[in-house]
Amino acid sequence: MNRILVTIAILSVISQAAEISVQEPPPRRLVGPLLRPFHIERRNVGPAQLTDSPRLEQLIRGGNLYLSVRDVIALALENNIDIAIQRYGPFLQQEVLRRAEGGAPLRNVGVNILPGPQSVSLAGVSVNAVGLSDTGAISSGAGIVTSIGTPPPSLDPNLFAGVSFAHQTTPLSVTALSLVPALITNTQAFQISYAQSFVTGTLAQLNFYGSHTSLNSPANVLNPFTQGTLELYVNQNLLQGWGAAVNNRYIRVAKNNLKVTDLQFQQQVVTTVSAVLNLYWDLVSFNDDVRIKQDALETAQKLFEDNQKQAELGTLPGIEVTRAAAQVSASKEDLLIAQTNVAQQEIVLKNALSRTGIASARMDEVHIVTLDTIMVPEKEDDLRPTPELVDYALAHRPEIEKTKINLESSKIGAIGTKNALLPNLSAFVDVSNNGLTGAANALNIIPGNVPDPAIVGGFGTLLGQIFQRHYPNYSAGFSLSIPFRNRAPQADYVADQLQLRQNELQLQRAMSQVRVEVRNVVIGLQQARARYETAVATRVLAEQTLEAEQNRFKFGESTPAAVIQAQRDLAGFQSSEVQAMANYTHAKIAFDQAIGRTLEVNGISVAEAQAGQVARPSAIPPAVQDGRTKQ
């Protein structure tokens, strides 16, 4: 019940969003409320939003796109295409529910979870190790399943109206009855029927038949005359198709699938946000690596210039100048590679945060400036015991909840195949009232052939006879159909039972996989911290080694080759430290994703994500132009 209320609340927020809209037709004047259940509703769906949110433009200043972690998350929720695609899921499933409430079979509207963008470098901790497989079928955690078995009745009422006109001339071989050689008949007939089926397996139908006939025969006492019949027909399925549990199973499965689409969207948000955060922190580490490579190049260049001066003075062999020049070339190559990583990473990140991506010349030219730095806590991560983390993950991972709902839907669908094994037994009751009225035959030539005054009159007399039940008819009965062998329903029933057992095993597998993932991310987080601490210690030792070699070189106790090697080692260890910091952020993101708290940690509102509008402002203050604040 709580999940349904949350879904309804989310849909109410979505309905107010401009990105996705389903517009109801304008009401018809005067008779609109009266005719609304009967006329064809042509609801219009607005076009897809292909432009970015205003937030992206507000973050561009002087050809640079300034991004904080908070802004990256907001831009992903507002502009990421993977999330935008999944945003249609609740709308699609709401229409499937609407279809099921009319008694129609379910439609498959599932969309797979998209894995999200990847960094140009995936060294270290894997960023895509978390998440159960998703194949697009509800039994495996996505999409929608359709059911077989006893077909539910159409639950939408049906109104039928028909009118016919006929002129008939019939030559007669015996004229004793009609007293004319050829009988000429003119008939105007009409019929109005209203039928309604119910989830109990009941069909109720109310029919009114009427006809107005004129003849050229003098034998009839009434000419022209009007006939009418009001009939109530009720049919009830007693075995196959009996009960609400069978006939409303599509509705219950559709409501379950509505909850699945909500979880599906949450899973896509978690996947995309995790991927975008990994992109951002990788870009931060790439920028740090560029600065390290620039410092290494400056140091190598200074050593080259110093060696060159000493060689000119004759105090240093020329080979040392060549070695220093080689180190400068190697440092330039390292810097070029680092700058290339930054440029490629910016392209990937811009494409993930914009619907047009680099198709826009403005977005293609801007340079991303990251505002946050990687901070590894000094203290050890205070992790709860692993069993508690596993229990938390099993309670909060959307994949587990989806699998449980799929299992419940499979059980509901099996009700239909089980019911289809029964014979088709139905009972019916038919009650009708008849009426006849008209005018005395002006062609009458038979003495005493005078009509009863009770049937002489117009349409009002006819209705009086019908509703006063002057001429009632009654009928009742039952029908029984027993198929021999019944192989198709038998096969469907066994197949559903096998799939149900299969789904139970899939749930068990999903839970086992979550347990494994939680333990792996805990180990990965601990390993990432240990690697970072080791990298820091190694970098400190490398700095001390370089400083010592430089001091020894000043006093002639070391060689330029030793200094160059120390410079290379320090640059490599500094890069390793930056990579270790990035790996720690990857491990932390994977940890949050594995235990199911990505949304909570990053302050993400599912309702805002569904609407594609994040309320929280940017961390960057608005620009000021001409003394006015630019919003």
Structure, explained:
By secondary structure, the chain is of the alpha+beta class. It has a domain at 158-197 and 202-240 and 424-481. It is 51% helix and 17% strand. It has 17 helices and 13 strands. It has helices at 2-16, 32-35, 54-58, 69-79, 81-87, 89-101, 244-247, 249-313, 318-353, 361-365, 386-396, 398-419, 459-467, 487-554, 560-595, 598-601, 606-611, and strands at 22-23, 44-45, 60-61, 64-67, 158-171, 182-197, 202-215, 222-237, 367-370, 424-440, 471-481, 623-625, 628-630. The chain has a six-stranded antiparallel beta sheet with strand order 5-6-7-8-10-11. A three-stranded mixed beta sheet has the order 3-4-9. Strands 1-2 form a two-stranded antiparallel ribbon. Helix 8 runs antiparallel to helix 9 (318-353) and helix 11 packs across helix 14 (487-554). It starts with a helix and ends with a strand. Residues 4-17, 123-128, 135-145 and 626-631 have low confidence and may be disordered.
H/E topology pattern:
HEHEHEEHHHEEEEHHHHEHHEHEHHHHEE
Question: How far apart lie the N and C ends?
Answer: 42 Å
Question: Low-confidence spans: pLDDT under 50, at least 5 residues?
Answer: 4-17, 123-128, 135-145, 626-631
Q: What fraction strand?
A: 15-25%
- Secondary structure class reads alpha+beta
Total number of strands: 13
Strand arrangement across the biggest beta sheet: 5-6-7-8-10-11
Mean pLDDT: 85
Using only C-alpha atoms, the radius of gyration works out to 40 Å
Helix content: 40-55%
- Sketch the major β-sheet: 6 strands, antiparallel
Global shape: elongated
User: So how many helices?
Assistant: 17
